[in-house]
Amino acid sequence: MHRQKIRTAIAGLGRAGWNLHLKPMVADGGYGIVAITDPLEDRCQEAVETIPECRAFGSLDALLEKSDAELVVVATPSNSHFDDARKVILSGRHCILEKPMSSNSVEAFELKQLAERNRVRVFVHHVYLHRAEHRHLSEVVASGVLGPLFHLRHEWTSYARRWDWQTLLKNGGGLLANIGPHALSIVLPLIGGEATVVYCETRNIKDAGDAEDFVHLVLRGSTGVTADITLSSATAVAGPRWQLLGQHGSLTSDGTTSRLRAYDASSVPPLEVLDTAAPGRVYLSETLPWFEREMKVDDGTPLVGFHENVRLVLSEGASPMVTLEGACDVARVMDLAKQAAARG
Question: Is this model's pTM higher than 0.90 or not?
Answer without folding.
Answer: yes
